[in-house]
């Protein structure tokens, strides 16, 4: 009697065929009952070609990223020097236009970084450095990096943390990236004079839940299923703002799931959105 | 102010750094590959090297290894300035002896802060 379906094991093997050719095999297994005993049936799936394509894709993205970074370095650097007044005084229109170039260049830089991240996540090359980390500290330092943008929009930023240490088992840089992606959206798509609140608390014993609440325009229900997909941008937001790559939430979702957590959104049009995610806490 | 050697095979990047560092009062020497950079280090012994990695001929890692293996030049601080921004590249840069590592494209405030810190460290040695 067969039970369930084949599920991938967490390892692959390499074999050398009689003709000397090396093949990569994925190991899948299925639980079966054999003469009344629970056994595993194993299936070897040849993934040599798939691995070759994955390697080519990774190499392409890595080369493309380098080739994009080099011209971007000059564009950003020269533009920043002119804007900083290193080449003489600017009039208001010149300053405004060069400011637009700076914003767009920064967006391109973010896009290149995101593409590299996605490539690493998808090919399983992103290795998490899991350690106990103080979540409140990571949240506060991420908030600091967004204070200037929040002040420009007169947003009120606040935090509410559970009493006692909020320690999660996670990769510090990646958690910071998840929080940054959610917070920067909460700031970017908020209304003038609105607020952003970050709440963190113990959730279902072994997890800590983080909510990022904004008072932005909210997301229509029809768009929520697409929100965490690659390159998706909420229609109204995309109309008003040229900022944003449509990759931040997709990366946040992948990173949360790599940590064993989940991410979701609750939103009401014209009132705001709350993005929530969970991370594993230290086992007591 | 310091004498800084800028090593990069991209002429636009070299010109940009030359311009900015001179505004800040530094003396700038430039080189477009590792071999040329090594000759400049030997003749001028700069206070700091800003070093790209991917260059024709002797690349940045090779030059860095040579400098850090030499008793005459190992104390010159080297700040890597490169488009190779993956974690393994950064770790490899530090393992090879880099004093600091900046990924392109960079913002001038960060680069200048790192240069100043590396110069202070170099002076203390």
The greatest interface between two protein chains, and residues involved on each side, is: A-B, 21 and 19 residues
Strand content of chain B: 15-25%
Largest sheet of chain B: 5 strands, parallel
CATH architecture of chain B: 3-Layer(aba) Sandwich
**Would you count the extended β strands of chain B for me?**
5
What does this structure look like?
Chain A has 284 residues and is α+β, with helices and mostly antiparallel strands. Chain A contains seven helices and ten strands. In chain A, strands 5-7-8-10-9 form a five-stranded mixed β-sheet. In chain A, helix 1 packs antiparallel against helix 2. Chain A is globular and about 80 Å long. The two termini of chain A are 40 Å apart. The relative contact order of chain A is 0.10. The mean pLDDT of chain A is 87. With 125 residues, chain B is of the alpha/beta class. Chain B has one domain: Response regulator (Rossmann fold), CATH 3.40.50.2300. Chain B has a five-stranded parallel β-sheet with strand order 2-1-3-4-5, sandwiched between helices. In chain B, helix 2 runs parallel beside helix 3. At the A-B interface, helix 1 and helix 2 of A face helix 1 of B.
Q: Secondary-structure blueprint of this entry?
A:
The complex is a heterodimer of chains A (284) and B (125).
Chain A: E1 7-16, E2 22-34, E3 37-46, H1 48-83, H2 92-122, E4 131-134, H3 135-145, H4 147-152, E5 156-161, E6 167-170, H5 172-188, E7 195-203, E8 207-214, H6 235-240, H7 248-258, E9 263-268, E10 272-280
Parallel strand pairs in A: 5-7
Antiparallel strand pairs in A: 1-2, 2-3, 4-6, 7-8, 8-10, 9-10
Chain B: E1 3-7, H1 11-23, E2 27-31, H2 34-44, E3 48-51, H3 60-69, E4 78-82, H4 87-96, E5 100-103, H5 108-124
Helix pairs in contact in B: 2-3
């Amino acid at each position: 009697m067969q039970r369930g379906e084949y599920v991938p094991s967490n390892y692959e093997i390499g074999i050398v065929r009689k003709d000397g050719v090396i093949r990569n095999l994925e190991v899948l297994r299925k639980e079966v009952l054999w003469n009344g005993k629970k056994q595993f049936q194993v299936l070897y799936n040849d993934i040599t070609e798939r691995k070759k394509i994955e390697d080519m894709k990774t190499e392409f993205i890595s080369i493309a990223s380098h080739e994009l970074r080099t011209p971007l370095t000059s564009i950003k650097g020269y533009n920043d020097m002119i804007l900083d007044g290193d080449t003489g005084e600017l009039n208001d229109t010149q300053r405004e236009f060069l400011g637009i170039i700076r914003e767009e260049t920064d967006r391109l830089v973010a896009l290149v970084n995101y593409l590299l991240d996605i490539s690493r996540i998808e090919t399983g090359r992103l290795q998490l450095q899991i350690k106990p980390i103080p979540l409140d500290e990571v949240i506060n330092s991420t908030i600091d990096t967004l204070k200037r943008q929040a002040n420009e929009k007169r947003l009120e930023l606040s935090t509410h943390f559970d009493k006692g240490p909020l320690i999660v088992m996670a990769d510090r840089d990646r958690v910071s990236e998840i929080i940054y992606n959610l917070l920067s959206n909460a700031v970017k798509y908020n209304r003038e004079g609105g607020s952003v609140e970050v709440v963190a608390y113990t959730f279902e014993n072994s997890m800590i839940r983080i909510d990022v609440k904004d008072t932005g325009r909210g997301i229509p229900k029809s768009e929520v299923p697409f929100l965490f997909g690659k390159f998706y941008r909420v229609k109204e937001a995309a109309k008003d703002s040229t900022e944003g790559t449509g990759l931040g939430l997709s990366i946040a979702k992948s990173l949360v799931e790599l940590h064993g957590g989940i991410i979701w959104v609750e939103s009401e049009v014209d009132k705001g959105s709350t993005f929530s995610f969970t991370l594993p806490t230290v086992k007591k | 102010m310091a004498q800084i050697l800028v090593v990069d095979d991209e002429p636009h990047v070299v010109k940009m750094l030359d311009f900015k560092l001179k505004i800040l009062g530094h003396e700038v020497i430039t080189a477009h590959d590792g071999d040329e950079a090594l000759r400049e280090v030997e003749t001028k012994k700069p206070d700091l090297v800003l070093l790209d990695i991917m260059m024709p001929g002797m690349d940045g890692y090779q030059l860095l290894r040579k400098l850090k293996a030499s008793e005459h030049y190992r104390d010159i601080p080297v700040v890597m300035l490169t488009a190779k921004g993956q974690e393994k590249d950064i770790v490899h840069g530090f393992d090879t002896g880099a004093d600091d590592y900046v990924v392109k494209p960079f913002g001038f405030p960060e680069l200048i802060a790192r240069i100043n810190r590396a110069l202070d460290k170099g002076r203390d040695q």
